[in-house]
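# step 3/5: fold
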Amino acid sequence: MRIMGLDFGSKTVGVAISDPLLICAQGIEIIRRKEENKQRQTLARIEALIEEYQVDEIVLGLPKNMNDTLGPRVEKTLEFKDKLERRTGLTVHTWDERLTTVAADKAMMEAGIRRENRKEYVDEIAAVLILQGFLDMRRNTAGQALSADSRQEECSGAEE
């Protein structure tokens, strides 16, 4: 099982993929298009990557405003989510992506990547941050559920 992470922008889509154990995310590419509304080739490339990496689920960054309101970018992202679900048949989760681009830029700055070269990678790194956040949340949620089950078994065993 693998999960794909997407950072959907007006002219680019950053793509990341999880490892089969769903532990870590890795950037794989940036899909570029000439016009915002021309998404057919973008969707076709995503489908090819889904097949190549045997993806079972997708997590799509949701660009909420800093005050937690939904703006026009969210509407376009949700339309893209619907297209992805219809076209791929996969579950597409949304993930709050606020500040991922800022975090990606900061990480590249700390890594010594020159300012003029950062724009080339920022969408892919943002996709990695989106996917990694989602993977961490799932792992933490699963861990809490396992801990609760263990505590329940311990409590049940103590009653016998």
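# step 4/5: annotate
Confidence is low (pLDDT under 50) at residues 146-160.
# step 5/5: archive (pending)
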